[in-house]
Amino acid sequence: MRHTLLMFDVDLTLVDAAGAGQVAMLTAGHEVCGEGFTFQGVSFGGRLDPLIFADATVGCDYTEAEGVQRHDAFRSAYIRDFEQLLARNGRSIKPLPGIPELLDTLRIRAQDEGDVMLGLLTGNYAQTAKLKIEAAGLRRDWFTLGCFGDEADSRPGLTELAMQRYAEQTGTPAQPGRVVIIGDTQHDVACAKAHGCTAFAVATGRLSADELRDAGADIVVDDLSDPTPLFDLIGN
Question: Rounded to an integer, what distance in angstroms lies between the CA atom of residue 17 and that of residue 20?
């Protein structure tokens, strides 16, 4: 493995979507599932969209087969509603501090030196992740790999998938010590630790720096406006 693989979370790590995703999810959920669809007591941060959907439909009386069909319909409706919401108010989605500059530096380094590879590891569906990133003025094609919320049963499963895709793309096995998971929740930390990868946590979400350290993060920063700790990790 000649690269350091940097896998970025999306929400509150790369971008702040100002709650737009939850608004579109709720609209789609009510359309597909009725008023029994609710976010009361549902945790969002760092979780997979299909699991959020499952929690929100606990009060709905579906068979397993009906649940799968409803989920497929929900995903389509959510993507549609989110696109419409962005068309009305896309300017509310912003990149987090330092992110545009950091990604610009890293993608140039990936092209010129070839020692880093950028990827996405997020609980979002692929299409909504792309919409959020591009609404924030970033680009999906800056990220060579992508692992999304409906591609694994758990967040650690997404880490495993990222390592598999790296090996398939490069012909070289991924070395856990050179895989860095960058995120803002305890779930990002846990999915790194589950596979021996480095957990690089940013306190730009709902957890404090101390809470992220307590969760086991290897490196914690307030935000990425100063990317020095990340560059120190991957080698200047």
Answer: 6
Overall pTM surpassing 0.90 (yes/no): yes
Q: How far apart are CA 168 and CA 180, in angstroms?
A: 18
Which positions ≥6 away from 167 have C-beta within 8 Å? 173, 174
3-state secondary structure of 84: helix
Q: pLDDT by residue (tens digit) across 23-79?
A: 999 999 999 999 889 999 999 989 999 999 999 998 787 776 787 889 999 999 999
CA–CA separation, 144 and 120 (whole Å): 8
Instruction: Please give the order of strands across the beta sheet that includes 4-8.
Output: 145-147, 116-121, 4-8, 179-183, 198-202, 219-221
What is the Cα–Cα distance from 87 to 85, expressed in whole angstroms?
5
Judged by DSSP in three states, 53 sits in: helix
Hey, where are the domains in the chain? 4-17+93-234, 20-91
The domain covering 4-17+93-234 belongs, at the CATH homologous superfamily level, to HAD superfamily/HAD-like (3.40.50.1000)
9 φ, ψ to 5°? -70, 165
Per DSSP, what are the bridge partners of residue 198? 180
Q: How many CB atoms lie within 10 A of CB 87?
A: 8
- Contacts of residue 87, defined as CB under 8 A and 6 or more positions apart, other chains included, come to none
| 162's tokens | 């990222």
